[in-house]
Amino acid sequence: MPLTPVPDLIAAARPGGLGAFNVITLEHAEAIAAAAEDAKRPVVMQISENTVRYHGSLAPLALACLRIAADSSASIAVHLDHATSVELVTAAVELGIGSVMFDASTLDYAANVAATAEVARRCRERGVFVEAELGEIGGKDGAHAPGVRTDPDEAVEFVAATGVDALAVAVGSAHAMHARTAELDLELIATLAAKVPVPLVLHGSSGVPDNGLRAAVEHGMTKVNIATRLNVLMTEAVRSAVTRDADLSDPRKYLAPGRAAVRAEVEHFLRLLANRPDDPHRHGPPR
What we know:
Zn(2+) 1 binds at residues 82, 175, 203. With 287 residues, the chain is an alpha/beta fold.
């Protein structure tokens, strides 16, 4: 299936939320596509700037994701996540990635607005969807104190000044959480959804329990980003495989269980975010 623009994925996901999952290895991408096919739900594959740095360049993994998405029967978009470099955004657009998150949130407000507006202008000329962030989400580089929240009026002003298509907001989640104990400010999410004229994005969703994610969507959250949870389960599966067999040396035999674990978890989240009462898989075991 041809790559699907993010606005079309958002429309297809409604009244549920759109799941967005980070890719580090080829196995992540294969698992995400397979899970979307199983759940019959739209999905976003995301490649972060940190992952680009790990691989040494964007193109190899990005082109693989684009191909996996194009070959899948599911509706999929490929997205560049947390890009702080304008050059990386430009490289992503040139490769055919149709959605980017430009993250200038460490800058002061005026500089964030100026930089983000310029990136949004350039991307709009190429038909590329742009997400941005107002104030850092907890846990990124240790620079964001617990309890910080996005101000709704400032968010409205930021969107109007930059022309972005989606906004990542601080509502109680934090990046890189292993325990799923984060408590979201649902009242703030509802207020932001009522005031901000573009879709809201929840980062750091791995630390939010299932009922919190479902409630976030019900209160107006649109796109839900998940990364750490997949990596935790992939690592557990790989560790289990190599622990069981000390002579195991074929990467296919320990990466396959990791890929299967990611596939199962992505399918779980996609069904959860669909918020369909008639889905028999919706109320799986609590997580």
